[in-house]
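Example (one chain per record):
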Amino acid sequence: MYQVRATYLPRPDLQFDLEYYFRVHVPLAKAQAAGRLNIVKLEVETGCTALMDPTKKLSPCVFCIYLESREDLETFRRFMAGPGTDPMRADVPRYTNCELEWSVCEVRDV
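Predicted structure:
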């Protein structure tokens, strides 16, 4: 299984409207992905801080997408490179001034 993470990077003048994010942006992202992607699970992490120093803010929000196979990951990459994500990209400035960092990793049960 693969996990794709969209991490919103903190900044000194950070603005992030979680209410808007959950009310508008997440449903928009789900609607754009519907029928196009084989998503196993979606998660949102909020208020990420350093474990040993909770005053150190790591991210206001991380959006996690779980995909079953390498093929699903490649489909996701093509989707992200195409025009299907234009509405989501246009919506980002409405709830945050943070830059996004995308990463992917393989997830294994232990």
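Caption: The two ends are 13 Å apart (CA to CA).
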